[in-house]
Amino acid sequence: MRSDSGWPRLLAGIFLVFALFHWSATALGSDRGQAGLLVGAIVVAATLAVERLFFGQPIAVAAPTLGLGAPALRGPLAAAALGLALLLVIPVFARVTQSSVTTYPGWASLLPGLFAQAGIAEETLFRGYLFGYLRRGRSFWRAAILATVPFTLVHLLLFVTLPWTLALRRCSSLSSFRFRWPTCMSSAAGRSGLPRSCTSSCRAR
Q: What is the pTM of this model?
């Protein structure tokens, strides 16, 4: 059980792993999950290492604590329904705006990496590690509000290293919840950006 005295270690872990996350994705050119499987493995391994080195948690204990376990069936089913709802926004938007919808080249091959990078890696760090720590002894909403502070601070790094429009897109989700596989699935679906809409003026070009 971790206590409030672990705040410096908690924050150090968040900043270190996120810096590694951002650096590895940038170095590998994985802005859409091109090297997402490797990035995801790096981030999960680093988060487990922080649990072991900073908090003395055995890996066998840290993994399920971070949410890296078998999900209940209803979780993935709910996430699949939510992901489908998110994806349906695209054709609805295209119809309302009279746009056409195209797909990113090779989008299908990017899905496993996108799931690992935008789903598993990010949810393990922010929902499993950060929110999991803060949730102990606190109400859900109090922990969620506290989690937004370090979550926002580490994401400010993106505004230094990325164009502002892309940085804003990556910071669009600022709520922190307990990590589970469903959250991972919906996060990957919501951040994919694989389908693209093109307005009539775009088509004219």
A: 0.76
Burial profile 180-204: b = 16 or more Cβ within 10 angstroms, e = fewer: bbbbbbbbbbbbbebbeeeeeeeee
pLDDT of residue 156: 77
- Number of neighbouring beta carbons within 10 Å of residue 58: 9
Note the pLDDT tens digit of each residue in 4-60: 568 899 999 999 999 999 899 989 999 888 999 999 999 999 999 999 999 999 999
pLDDT at 31: 83
Domain ranges in the chain are 4-72+105-187
Evaluate whether 14 touches 153 at the Cβ level (below 8 Å).
Answer: no
Q: Which residues contact 21 (CB under 8 A, 6 or more apart)?
A: 39, 42, 43, 46, 121, 122, 125
198 in Cβ contact with 153 (< 8 Å): no
DSSP string, 140-188: HHHHHHHHHHHHHHHHHHHHHHS-HHHHHHHTS--------HHHHHHHH
Q: Is 4 exposed, middle or buried (0-12, 13-18, 19+ CB in 10 A)?
A: exposed
